[in-house]
Specification:
Helix content: 25-40%
Radius of gyration: 14 Å
Strand content: 15-25%
Number of domains: 1
Shape: globular
């Protein structure tokens, strides 16, 4: 199947990357940043992934976005599709969601490239 590029990012670190689909995860899903024990972790850490993926609605959003990506790749001008998903700092929600989406799309037979633009950046004080 066509190549899919997924980029997670933090709105506090700049403009969203160019994409066919851009998702803003800042207001509707649990933010691990508010938990002192999770704040300095990233989506590379299991407790953060559990907190994000345990948020009501997130698995439904992964499924819906995977379906949208498949629709894009099925169109008459099918080609590579880029999905950008962002949260505030780009360390927790966005990269955890991006990994879950990448896993789902890979399981569906797509070739996926995953980039975490801001996960390496320091925690933003807010």
């Amino acid at each position: 199947m066509n190549d899919i590029r997924i980029v997670s990012f933090g709105y506090l670190h700049g403009e969203p990357p160019a994409a066919h689909l851009t998702l803003d995860l800042r207001h509707h899903f649990r933010d691990p940043h508010v938990s002192p024990e999770l704040r300095h972790m990233t989506a590379a850490d299991e407790p953060v992934r559990q907190a994000v993926l345990g948020t009501p609605g997130i698995t439904g959003l992964v499924a819906a976005v995977a379906a949208a990506v498949t629709a894009f790749t099925s169109g008459p001008s099918a080609g590579p599709v880029t999905v950008a998903d962002g949260c505030a700092g780009g360390r927790h929600r966005a990269p955890a969601f991006a990994q879950a989406l990448a896993d789902r799309l890979t399981d569906d037979g797509h070739t996926v490239t995953l980039q975490h633009r801001d996960m390496h950046r320091p925690v933003v004080d807010r």
